[in-house]
Amino acid sequence: MPNTTIQAAAEGLPVAETLSRDPLAPRGRTSCDIDMPALRKMGMKELRDLRSALHTAGELISGFCCQPRFLTEDGNNYNEPGNVLEDICDFLGSYEQAAVNVSVAAKPTTSSEVEWRGWTILGFEADCAEDLV
C-alpha cells in the first residue's frame, strides 16, 4: 500500500481516509460540506449571485426528479437515481439557505451592499412563498 500512502500525502488527505477509500470512487473529494467561512467572506452581491445560481440548479434538478425515469414503477416514490438527485437538491437548498442566513446576519455599511442584501433576502422569501401575501 505504499502507493496509496504516497498518493494520500500528495493530495493532502489523511492516510487512513485514503486507505479505506472505495476503489471505484473518483479522485478528489467524494463529499461536500457547506463552507461557512467562505460564505462569511463573500460580499452581498456575491451572496446574492451564489443564492441565485444554487436556486436555479436546485430547480433544474427538481425538474429531473419529476421525470418517470427517476420514479419507481408505481410512480409514487423515487427510484435509486431519483433518491440521489433528491439528496443533491436538498444539499443545494441547504447551501442556499446558508447563504441567505449569512446575508441576514450581515451588517452592510454601503448603500450598494444594503441593496444587494435586500435583493438576496427578498428573492429567497419570494421563491419560498406560496402567494404574494
How would you describe this protein?
The protein has six helices and no strands. With about 130 residues, it is mostly helical. The protein is flat.
Short description:
The chain contains 6 helices and no strands. With 133 residues, the protein is mainly alpha-helical.
- Give a short account of the largest sheet: none
Residue fraction in strands: under 5%
- Termini separation comes to 62 Å
* Mean residue pLDDT: 88
Helix content: 55-70%
Radius of gyration: 20 Å
The stretches of 5 or more residues where confidence is low (pLDDT under 50) are 1-6
Count of strand segments: 0
| Basic shape | flat
Helix and strand element order:
HHHHHH
Number of H/I helices: 6
Structural class: mainly alpha
Which helices and strands, and how do they pair?
Layout: H1 2-11, H2 15-19, H3 36-41, H4 44-65, H5 80-105, H6 111-128
Helix pairs in contact: 4-5, 4-6, 5-6
Question: What key attributes describe this structure?
Answer:
mainly alpha; 6 helices
